[in-house]
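pasting Farnesyl pyrophosphate synthase for the record, 271 residues
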Amino acid sequence: MQVQTYFFFWDDFEDGGRIRCGKPCWHLRPDTGSLALNDACIMRSFIEELVRQNFTAELCDNILRIYNGIYFIGAIGQYLDTIAARSNNYDNFTREQYNATNVMKSSFFSVKSPILLGLALANKLSEESCNHVDNVCDDIGVLVQIHNDLIDVFNIDGSVTGKNGTDIQERKCSWVAVAVLEKCNTEQRRIFEENYGSWDPKKIDSIRKLYEELDILQLYKQEEKARYETFLKKVNALPKNATPSADFFYKFYDLFQTYTRDITCLMYDKH
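structre below
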């Protein structure tokens, strides 16, 4: 929870976020502002201190190495996400760019690191087990972000996730934008380029109508199916004595599906 709070502070400040968890973002508090970055640094140091006080030297070293990976890899992903949003060249909104960004921004933090921390606590962390996690979990991690990007389109007021959707306004290189640019014709691309990245309500509506016209929900179902098939191939190729086991990864994906199914149902109801 503390690591997530650390990233919320930084992410909301950099993106100019307004709502998080149904409340005003931390930097919008009257007595906070840019001090949110200082608070994030305190939070990060507090996490390290907690680890050092509660674990043996060897275990502490493994845990902090994973946490450092979260910070370092996450920062690179955030950088790639930010510079893509600042670009006016939509030729850069590619599947390759999106995957590269979110393997770092989403996969390691949301999927890989919890598994690696569990392996460390169970004294089963090894180069081989790390390689299995790294290989299998990329697609799940990116799919987590794809799901979040989809929700952002329909979660206008923040009532579904507690965070208002602003990917269109902030010119994010989201999966939705990438999928639309792959599928659109010349006229649809013109509409996208003329309206994307604006806070003008009329332009935002134009983008949302374009998304509906291209049936973005159906495109998501196709993407989810393709990612799942890739995931299954990787899991089925694991050695029988692999750590984590194939059975573990199957159960892990079931948890992900339960999470996405519940929120997506809410999203469909609102849509």
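The beta strands are 19-20, 23-24.
The chain is about 75% helix and 0% strand.
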